[in-house]
């Protein structure tokens, strides 16, 4: 166990810190079959980082790049719920450095700070059978720098520093995040997804407001009512409730 200014490294989790790698997601995939415990892989820089929907992820130095790889013993649908655990953990970790009122969780898996995107989460998994063989939870946090050249125009990126937070060492932040994430896994095990969902909803951006979800094929606009037991976004539209499994959300 190691300590940092805040938090301690969680028991049962391993940590690997690399200077540079193509992507911590790729490194996780390469190591997945040989790990003996859930492992956080952090890299100071990435040369080919990826975001959701095949977008590139821009990585200025001083930001956090990390992937947790483990076998969740879960179906793909259960494994996918880990994005909400990661978002809750990120919220708690960031709230140490900025007032919590400035933070909000945007479905499905972004963290907003003063309305800008401060962190993103990317899930990848592998497996042919009913259960995934491994799951990777990739997390990028703009600690020090706002990435340039980001084209996802609806939520301009921001950083902890730009929004008035403290300067944070990425390794210290990872310790806090890993500890918060381990607590989320404990909550899932003891209380089920219902409790994770409640925590996520308590900090959700624009709950009760009219929002638009852009799926691959259409835009759905409605009142953001809740997320359901599977993590789907539920919008109340003119024709009734509509559950959406995958989309980009616009306010
Ligand atoms: O599109 C998003 O919002 C998700 C971004 C996820 C970026 C992180 S950085 C660490 C890990 N390695 C990658 O290549 N991507 C994820």
From TrEMBL:
SUPFAM superfamilies: Class II aaRS and biotin synthetases. Residues 11-189 form the BPL/LPL catalytic domain. Its EC number is 6.3.4.15. GO terms for molecular function: biotin--[biotin carboxyl-carrier protein] ligase activity. Coiled coil: none annotated. InterPro entries: aa-tRNA-synth_II/BPL/LPL (IPR045864), Biotin_CoA_COase_ligase (IPR004408), BPL_C (IPR003142), BPL_LPL_catalytic (IPR004143). It holds the Pfam family BPL_C. Keywords: Biotin, Ligase. One of its GO terms (cellular component) is cytoplasm. It catalyses: biotin + L-lysyl-[protein] + ATP = N(6)-biotinyl-L-lysyl-[protein] + AMP + diphosphate + H(+). NCBIfam families: birA_ligase. This is biotin--[biotin carboxyl-carrier protein] ligase. The lineage of its organism: Bacteria, Pseudomonadati, Pseudomonadota, Alphaproteobacteria, Rhodobacterales.
């Amino acid at each position: 166990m190691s300590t940092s200014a805040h938090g301690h490294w969680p028991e049962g989790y391993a940590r690997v810190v690399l200077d540079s790698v193509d992507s911590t997601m790729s490194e996780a995939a390469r190591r997945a079959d040989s790990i003996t415990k859930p492992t956080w892989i952090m890299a100071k820089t990435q040369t080919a980082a990826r975001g959701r929907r095949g977008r590139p992820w821009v990585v200025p130095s001083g930001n956090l790049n990390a992937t947790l790889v483990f076998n969740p013993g879960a179906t793909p649908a259960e494994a996918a719920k880990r994005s909400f655990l990661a978002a809750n953990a990120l919220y708690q970790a960031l709230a140490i450095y900025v007032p919590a009122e400035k933070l909000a969780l945007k479905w499905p898996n972004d963290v907003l700070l003063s309305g800008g995107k401060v962190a993103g989460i990317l899930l990848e998994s592998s497996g042919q059978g009913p259960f995934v063989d491994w799951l990777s939870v990739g997390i990028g946090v703009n600690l020090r720098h706002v990435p340039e050249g980001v084209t996802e125009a609806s939520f301009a990126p921001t950083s902890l520093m730009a929004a008035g937070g403290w300067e944070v060492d990425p390794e210290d932040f990872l310790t806090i995040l890993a500890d918060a994430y381990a607590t989320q896994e404990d909550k899932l095990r003891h209380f089920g997804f219902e409790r994770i969902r409640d925590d996520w909803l308590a900090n959700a951006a624009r709950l009760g407001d009219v929002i638009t979800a852009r799926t691959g094929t259409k835009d759905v606009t409605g009142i953001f009512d809740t997320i359901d037991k599977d993590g789907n976004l539920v919008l109340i539209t003119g024709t009734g409730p509509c559950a959406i499994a995958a989309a980009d959300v616009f306010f």
